[in-house]
Structures are given as C-alpha cells and as structure tokens.
Amino acid sequence: xxxxxxxxxxxSLRTTHWGFSEKKVSREDIETIIxxxxxxxxxxxxxxxxxxxxxxxxTLQKITGGxxxxxxxxxxxxxxxxxxxxxxxxxxGYRDFYPTNxxxxxxxxxxxxxxxxxxAVIAAKSMEIDSLVTNFxxxxxxxxxxxxxxxxxxxxxxxxxxxxxxxxRPVEETTGRxxxxxxxHYGTYRPVEEIDTQEIIxxxxxxxxxxxxxxxxxxxxxxxxxxxxxxxxxETHRELVESLCRSxxxxxxxxxxxxxxxxxxxxxxxxxx
Length: 273
Description:
- By secondary structure, the protein is an alpha+beta fold.
- It is built from 11 helices and 4 strands; from the N terminus they run ααβαβααβααβαααα.
- It is globular.
C-alpha cells in the first residue's frame, strides 16, 4: 500500500534522547502544535486537561531530568485538570458536584491527556520538529513539580511531558516496538501461551543490546531486575499515590481498594525459576 503524507509522518516518528540542537522552536509553531493537539477526541468534549508551556532552561532541567535541550528546548506539560469543570459547577450552584467515582473520571482524563500528547508529537513531526515524550513528572516528586509550575493543589496533576526541539542528528533505525504479529489479535484475543515467548525475548534483545551482560543474559532480565526497581520502588509509588490523593482526583477509598488489590496480586520483585 502506498503511504500518504500522514502515514509517512507517523512512520518517521523517533524519540530524541539527549540530542537536541540549539535551534529554537518558534512560539508560532508551539501554538500550532498545541492547537492541533486540542483537536484530539476527548470525553464529553470537556477537555479535562491543561497544557503548560515551559521554556525556562532551569525549570526544563528540573521537570525533565536533564533530557531537554537546555536553553533551546521547550516542554509541553500535559496535566489532568478538573479545575475548570469544578469552578463552572460551583458558579452554577452545584456545590457538591465532584463525583464519588473519582477514579473512573481520573482514568478517563488520563486517556484524553495521552491521546492529546501523541497528537502533539505527530503534529510536531509533520513540521519537522522532533520530540521526546517522558513521564518524569510523576516518577520524581510530583508535588515539587506542581509547586514549580504553580499548579493548583486540587484537581490538577502533571501526567506527561512532550519536549520539542530539533535533533542534532537523524535517527535512522526504528527501535522499541514488538513485531505486529505479537500485538494484533483478529476477532478474539489469542492466548499468550500460544505466542512464541522466546521470539519476543530475542526481539527485545535486539532492541536493547546494551543491557545484555554476563549478569543479565537477556535485556528483559535487566528490565525486571534494574529498571522496575529503580523507577517504581515502594517510596516512589507511595509518593505518587499520596500526591494524587491530595489533588482530590482520587479518594482514600480508591487507595484502599488499590492497595488491597496490589497486595493480593503481589508486588514483590520477580523471581526466576
């Protein structure tokens, strides 16, 4: 099948890590990218998210963990934001508007945020602007990042950041995606047991050959033993959940249920053998 321009743009997407040039993204281009990301489908047409544009070099470093391009970079912080709808409800006299099924509403807004952020990435690439998508904000002290960006304490939470810039060098190969035969299910779900798991393990070895060592014979060995423990330890998890609770986007009852389910599922370090 011959690809149209949209498909060519999507196929050309690459993540830029630590490699942005000093060329700045213009304010006009930034507004164009955000404007088109707002056209993404969203629940009830409420647009329950906000986009904070950050271009201060020092702030960029703090909210991206140094993965921005310093003085030339710009970051779009996509945040779940129920502030507007709550204020509108209050203005119309609905004092107890905020629903009890908060977890459901938060999850719906998460879907909308991620869809809008991905649309921004595609829009940027169509303009020959490169990007890095990161969830650094909620992996590293979300309360500090909220204060840094002067975000309201209630009903607002940073979810994902899109760093925009121009890559110093083109990335030729595509990595980080499983073959479609492992992902696509026609008609009904194909049980995992029928999939050649050894083939998937080998595919991941090809994606991340630098993580293979005498200690970790496969890339996924490194992932299960290092990555998960480094970024998703118990303290980080607790801080994330507490921050969400303070924001009012989820409630203590949700936390109790989630905690019970996590204990039942078992959150211990994976063991081989």
